[in-house]
Write the structure tokens for this entry.
Amino acid sequence: MTKIKQSGYVCSLDYAFQRVGGKYKGRIIWHLSEENVLRYGELRKILWDITPKMLTQTLRELESDGLIHRKVYLEVPPKVEYSLEEAGKELIPFINYLREWGETQMAKEGMI
Amino acid sequence: MTKIKQSGYVCSLDYAFQRVGGKYKGRIIWHLSEENVLRYGELRKILWDITPKMLTQTLRELESDGLIHRKVYLEVPPKVEYSLEEAGKELIPFINYLREWGETQMAKEGMI
DNA sequence: CAGCATCCTAGCTGATACTG
DNA sequence: CAGTATCAGCTAGGATGCTG
């Protein structure tokens, strides 16, 4: 089993960053907010730079933190859909704000 | 010299997270937004769990990313003050939003 | 299709001691 | 006071191959 980040929070900001920090969590939440529901394979295509291991691991963390919902269809071939839970939806404005801030900054630095 | 995080951004959200992610950046920005100006030693006291090395390293990254300003007084004993640049100030709403979200979540989980 | 299992490593983070 | 320098560990993240 993959090691799960240890708990122990210095403050609520620390707590929050441990939940949405990491390399892919923000982007996953963002794409889920845009599409509502995404399958594992779709996420994998959208986050083209992620490995299956990291995708699974990140999704599991988001799930156990109550930010996303994982719906398994008992079919063959398998089908799993991911969507935002309430706690995750509450992060959408924050994610968008950060995205816009990033765009502005990149524009200023002439990266766009 | 300490290694600096490699560049190469997938999108603006990725870019943004590389700038405010990490273990202490959010908290530093937050405290600077509350106090306006803080000296090195004051930050060290407030972020009681940080080592001098990490504090310096994190401050340097924030500085070279244009989020904070470093003002050196040529005195003995030395005095250095840190404050938010414009780009950093623009992150305050986001930081506060995230803090509040964290508090709500912690309350729900009975951690407060 | 949606994942596990295994092995591996870069670089983030830390402890401790020292300095202009 | 405000840092550096050194040494060291951990773990987030990656590569590759296999499976229900």
Notes: The longest helix of chain B spans residues 92-108. Chain B touches chain A through 37 residues (CB under 8 Å). The beta strands of chain B are 37-39, 68-73, 79-84. The radius of gyration of chain B is 15 Å.
